[in-house]
Amino acid sequence: MSVIGSTRLSLGEEQAMLLDVARDFCRRQSPMSAVRAQLDSPLGFDNAVWRQMVDLGWTGIALPESVGGSALGVAAVVPVAEALGRAMLGTPLLATTLAAQLLQRAAPGAQDDLLAEIAAGAVATVAMLENEDWGNTRYQVSLDSENRLSGVKMLVWDAQAADLLVVVARDGAGETVLAPVRRAAVADAALAPHTMIDETRRAARIDFTGVQAEAVIAGPSVLSALRDYRLLGALLVAAEAGGSAASCLDTTVAYLKTRKQFGKLIGSYQALKHPAVEILTAVDATRSFVYHAASVVGEEPLAQEAEIACRMAKAQATETLCHAGDRAIQFHGGMGFTYECDAQLYLRRAQWAQQQFGDARHHRTQLAALLLD
Amino acid sequence: MTPQPHELDSFRKDVAAWLAEHRPADPGFLLPQSFMEVSTDQQLDFLREWQHKVWSAGYLGMAWPRAYGGGGVDPAFQSIADQEMRRAGVPICFNVIGLGWAGPLINDIGTEEEKSKYLKGILSAEDIWCQGFSEPDHGSDLGAAQTRAVRDGDAYVINGSKIWTTMGNYARYMILLARTNPEAPRKYDGLSFFLAPMQVPGIETRPIRKLTGEYGFTETFFTDARIPQACRMGDEGDGWKIAMKTLQYERGAEAGAAGGLAFVRVSVDDMIDELRDVSRDGRPMLEEPLLRDQLVGLIMEEKAMALGDRRSAIAPLTTDYPFSLPLSNKLRWTEYSRRLRQFAVGAQGAAGSFYVGDDAARQGGFWQRAYLNSFSATIGGGTSQIQANIIAEHVLGLPK
């Protein structure tokens, strides 16, 4: 058996269409001026744009037809995520898609009412993280015998916009369970927005103490659903980061073609050319990993082949974006050091993306075990 | 007509069966891992016989026209044959400059006469081809080539020298880039392209000893060597254009090669298998965290390239920079393979300091020799640094 493993990579008709439509949509709806207009808004996105995305059916891409989705699988969300990243368009689409996957995989068929709400545009998110460790699976937030929660979650993605929160908790027996909670059940004072390094992103600390869960999802499928959630999260953030890295490179290249120093366009200097080519190669590798992963995530629960692919996509994509963003600042010179220059948006996005669903070190450590042991 | 999947499947089985039956026995001497390492007559005879055998069985030049010794079938068959040859780990088809560069060029832009005269001999390995592009003073800066070709009646008189002529001492023909007009306003416009015979008075070759201590390249000297005027390809002044086209085949950016293995592709798989039992700090190497992380990095890099090959065939996924993958192919593969081999030498522990000839060397010193030889690919055909310039300018559109 080769350590290189599967090299499946295909693009279905629907995926190709979504890629086209999403890129066009983002180009029109999210020029940099629109991205910047949202940097200090409470929710981080324009509700009118979000409604259009819902109307396009994007919140139901990976949901079954029975709840109003189009049953195309997470693979079909990948090109949309890539397009969002390219345009730096911050919307709750990824958080919502992933929360829906978690519910659906943990309790197939049992949460259809909630899934139908999500397909129709309700914003959903998952409250999982309790400390800085994305690899942690021992949750302290607890659920008592009357389905009341207790404890604090941090970095709850898009919590400010969420209608529905899926809380990962442990029950009295110490088993990991999922507790869907309505936003209305959480007091405003219990939700404290974080100040994020990526100003296009929103997340909050939430104290769930005393909050009544809508329902409780327990059983062995919870753990495998959480594993899939983390891996699919890694894939979608990788797809988004891949899109951001590509447009970050475009931004840098455009500057190298217009800025003159010492009487020459700076893009003619090899000291800038060669690293630009290295970034291009990394962007290429990212895109290949991302669409390879999209080609192998069809099974539920995810097969080992898919686990390897998602982890590689995440490790490659965020290392690429971190490097592309870092070099974008440097290559813009003094201009790159200003708030006005778009390079900072990519660099800040990179710092958020590298952590979300685990950083490259985390995934590479897991990959070493999967590939070498 | 596009071949049906079942046709391809049954063809794959046929090739695999043929290879299993006809794969040559271990000759008892180290075989070249690439066409740039043919060092002895013994190696040459062996490889010539093998290529002839592959061609006679119908597994080489499958997509070239039947009239010129090819198979006249869809290229998909050749790529399956190549995959199976790689899988079976059989020797290379060594006449690469003919099979991969000169051949496709003649097929694409050659005259009827040129096709009839040259193509079959390339496939059968009867005619070995070499390339006369680089000069001692002009390596990657090909446009500055100074070797002169002066028209004299129905001949050209050649003077000058070429370097890094792979198999120059064995070749019957050379694709030659020479200056016919030193007065041309642009240096590129003064060059012409020749399908030149090597066995004429005034051409001498001198083998170059490589850093491995072996041979494989020559320096080639032209002293009033007369070659027929008819062997000029295209018009006078077309040399640069044709040479650039040739480089497209060489860099894998343009299809048309006859097929066969040009080099033994070493995979990270082979390395991991080989090094599994190496001990480090009293424990198996594969338990060492830093080394594990470096291996994951190499695996990902190799996998990314295999995936890139797949993605480059899917148009909607290459819209940003459509030529990025094909134009960077050489750079990515050669640099990766150099680093992989370098890693393999270092990872052996103290055994990494043995070389070919020492009985204690792992696999006869395979990795050590492979690492030293890997520079032929990161330097030859345009150095990696020149490749980076080409990609920066032609893919990213950065200024010269």
From TrEMBL, chain A:
Keywords: FAD, Flavoprotein, Oxidoreductase. One of its GO terms (molecular function) is acyl-CoA dehydrogenase activity. Gene3D superfamilies: Acyl-CoA dehydrogenase/oxidase, N-terminal domain, Butyryl-CoA Dehydrogenase, subunit A, domain 3. Pfam families: Acyl-CoA_dh_1 (PF00441), Acyl-CoA_dh_N (PF02771). InterPro entries: AcylCo_DH-like_C (IPR036250), AcylCo_DH/oxidase_C (IPR009075), AcylCoA_DH/ox_N (IPR013786), AcylCoA_DH/ox_N_sf (IPR037069), AcylCoA_DH/oxidase_NM_dom_sf (IPR009100). Its cofactor is FAD. SUPFAM superfamilies: Acyl-CoA dehydrogenase C-terminal domain-like, Acyl-CoA dehydrogenase NM domain-like. Residues 234-369 form the Acyl-CoA dehydrogenase/oxidase C-terminal domain. Belongs to the acyl-CoA dehydrogenase family. This is Alkylation response protein AidB-like acyl-CoA dehydrogenase. It comes from Chromatocurvus halotolerans.
Automatic annotation (TrEMBL), chain B:
Keywords: FAD, Flavoprotein, Oxidoreductase. GO terms for molecular function: flavin adenine dinucleotide binding; oxidoreductase activity, acting on the CH-CH group of donors. Residues 41-126 form the Acyl-CoA dehydrogenase/oxidase N-terminal domain. Residues 130-222 form the Acyl-CoA oxidase/dehydrogenase middle domain. The keyword ATP-binding does not apply. One of its GO terms (cellular component) is plasma membrane. The keyword Flavoprotein applies. Residues 237-396 form the Acyl-CoA dehydrogenase/oxidase C-terminal domain. Its cofactor is FAD. Belongs to the acyl-CoA dehydrogenase family. This is Alkylation response protein AidB-like acyl-CoA dehydrogenase. It comes from Chromatocurvus halotolerans. The lineage of its organism: Bacteria, Pseudomonadati, Pseudomonadota, Gammaproteobacteria, Cellvibrionales.
